[in-house]
Amino acid sequence: MWQARLADMPRGENRAVLNRTYNGEPPFDDSKAEENSVEVNRNFLQGTRLLTDARRQWASALLKPGNYFTVGLDDGPAHKRMEYSHIITTQINRRLKRSQPMMEQIRATGAQVMLHGIGPTVWRDRRDPIPIPIPIASLLIPSETDLDFSNLEWYSVFRQWTPTQLVEMTSGPKVDPGWNMPLVKSQLKYVAEELRKQPNMSAFQYMPEKIEELIKQDGGFWGSDAVPTIDVWDCYFREAEDGKGWYRRIFLDWDLGKDEVSSYRNSGGMPKMDKQEDFLYTSKKRCYSNKLSEMLHCQFGDCSAVAPFKYHSVRSLGWMMWGVVDLLNRLQCKFTESTFEQMLWFFRTAGQQDFDRVKKAVFSHMGVIPQGVSFVPSNERFKPDSGQINMGLGMMRQILSENAASYVQDFEKGGSGKEQTATEVMAKVNNVNTMVSGMLNLAYTYQTSQYREIARRFCIKNSPYTEVKEFQKACLRAGVPAGYLDVER
């Protein structure tokens, strides 16, 4: 775990660069801008706009249809299959379409796919029907892991639980016996004494992109009014003995509440996992889940060039556009500086005395210029090559448009000044539509496994979740036999 966390830091720094650019940060930091006398230092948000367009395509494709997915039966009476399928499809989608967490999960997944190429989602427990999105920084996957996860032996999720969430998971009539209640109580005592969440906690030292989001949220105020949380690493792994079932361990982030749980720590501050009591939760020898698809789901962008594709080799639309976006911002900053410069009044003076006259002169509509001061006419001033500038701007915008064409339907209509014919326009429209359709078809393919898991969770008997109970009752009242509420059928 520790080695994976260190290995992910350089990746996190790269993701933080993308976050800064697409969050609207200027191309130069304050020190570089001052050192190079940069007068205009702004982000013109071309990349941000293109990512917004791409997210709109994603949301339209996945949220706009009346149903998220359809359910079909594989067996049973032939004359009843269509009726039962329609009832199940209608009732399950009715609950999902009313769920705001489901909508936000789809939007967040699409945003991560566009920006970083990977959109991971997990579930709170083994029966919750609605998945939740997690940041890429919160998911640790070993290097050299294939995109289909066939060689994945373990993974870990960074979670931040409020005291209320932890109490709900560890109290009630049917509490999972894997919870270490003395350690749970010590953590609740620790956060009870905290007035607010500390934004410079130990975990964020290894997550540069999370620091960027904190700065974006509070505008640089190095404090927080957030509720304090219990920060943990939720680990899942396969035992070498069986190689199939997945087991679970949860342990505290290494420096959180160290004083309160000193009996669970060694002197060096690193987690010491020698005993069963060191874990906040352990499934022990009990298999937590049979399939990876029941715990983790990922959407992937399609910008990688080298196959076979690896998890950490995935490249995003944001990565493809970043270089051009950064150069375009710098070029437009210089262009804007030059535009302001063209609006200045330039004077030619013979010495300090004439210079003082210029400063004292009043220039108004009928003003008089003092003797010895003369204007510098436009033909004697330096002028940038407008043709070269326009060519550079047009080239970068074209590259940006071409890189984003697979995700964005809005395209440039040409920067050469030549009016396109109807045939040329239709050819470009068809080409872009084909690429966008290809991207969405891949998204639908990846989404299928998540929808199948959602359907499985809606069919779990004795589920504590209200939407699942309502779904099953509605299907039974509509005449669907209980035996057909099985994802394998």
How would you describe this structure to a colleague?
44% of the residues lie in helices and 9% in strands. It is elongated and about 100 Å long. It is an alpha+beta fold and 489 residues long. About 5% of the residues have low confidence. It has 13 helices and 10 strands. The protein has one domain. The chain starts with a helix and ends in a 12-residue tail after the last helix. A 5-stranded antiparallel sheet has the order 3-4-5-6-7. Strands 2-1-8 form a 3-stranded antiparallel sheet. A two-stranded antiparallel ribbon has the order 9-10. Helix 4 packs antiparallel against helix 13 and helix 6 runs antiparallel to helix 7.
Taken from the alpha-carbon principal axes, the silhouette is elongated
Number of strands: 10
Report the biggest beta sheet as strand number plus sense, adding barrel if it closes: 5 strands, antiparallel
Provide the domain count. 1
Mean pLDDT: 80
The helix/strand class is alpha+beta
* Rg from alpha-carbon coordinates: 30 Å
Helix run count: 13
Residue stretches low in confidence (pLDDT < 50, at least 5 long) are 256-271, 410-416
